[in-house]
Amino acid sequence: MPSTILGIRIPDSVIAREATQLLRDTASDILFQHSMRVYLWGALSAQRKGIVFDPELLYAGAMFHDFGLTEDFHGSSLRFEVDGANAARDFLKRHGIPEGDIQKVWTAIAVHTTPGVPEFLHAEAALLHLAAGMDVAGRSYDQFTEEEHEAVVAAHPRGEGFKQRIIDAFHEGLKDRPATTFGTFNDDFIAFREPGFQRVNICSIILSSPWAH
């Protein structure tokens, strides 16, 4: 794995190396490579826009942002983002990271799939949200140069059929806890793979509430 890509240095501290190895040992290759690219998209965006951020915190956020989709959490009753945020918090606490920094990483992971919010939080949250959307859905694709596209994907390949395989990865991580997808776009992954899936409708909930009016 290259240590520097287009001037972006991959963090190489003990914490970064352990987080990388944990993700390698726990997640599928598609999630691992995706997470590495997420760090790079975030750091490249910060470099271009002159955003000051903590590379170690963004890297931790990238390594754990989809950790809640891994097999150990398939039976969880929490949103996958919260599972990943909690795992990152526990990991960082064991390494003696200050509580304020831990909270930054927790928040960045917890809201990374929530549109319209992260960009108003701290830099790590804004960058993680942008980078995850860039890699999965191509949001902000045109903000990056062709050289950047090629260099990042060469270092951490998307692989054949990435679009279908990332949908499958989300579906696999969410299909046994559909209630956790309410109020998010995550129910799209279940509905796409399971045509009979019934979404929860907030209007139906309101109309069937115990209030008389």
Q: Give the termini separation.
A: 61 Å
Q: Return the string of H and E elements.
A: EEHHHHHHHHHH
Adjacency order of strands in the biggest sheet: 1-2
Low-confidence stretches: none
Rounded to the nearest angstrom, the radius of gyration is: 18 Å
Mean model confidence by pLDDT: 96
Our estimate of the beta-strand percent is under 5%
Which word captures the global form? Answer: globular
Number of helices: 10
- Main sheet record: 2 strands, antiparallel
Number of DSSP strand runs: 2
Question: What structural category arises from helix and sheet content?
Answer: mainly alpha
How would you characterize this protein structure?
The chain is mostly helical. It is 57% helix and 2% strand. It has ten helices and two strands, in the order ββαααααααααα. A two-stranded antiparallel ribbon has the order 1-2. Helix 2 runs antiparallel to helix 7 and helix 4 packs antiparallel against helix 5 (99-110).
Entry summary:
The protein has helices at residues 14-26, 29-49, 55-64, 80-94, 99-110, 123-137, 146-155, 162-174, 187-193, 202-207, and strands at 4-5, 8-9. By secondary structure, the chain is mainly alpha-helical.
Set out the fold topology.
Layout: E1 4-5, E2 8-9, H1 14-26, H2 29-49, H3 55-64, H4 80-94, H5 99-110, H6 123-137, H7 146-155, H8 162-174, H9 187-193, H10 202-207
Antiparallel strand pairs: 1-2
Helix pairs in contact: 1-3, 2-3, 2-6, 2-7, 3-5, 3-6, 4-5, 5-6, 8-9
List keywords for this structure.
single chain, 213 residues, mainly alpha, 2 strands
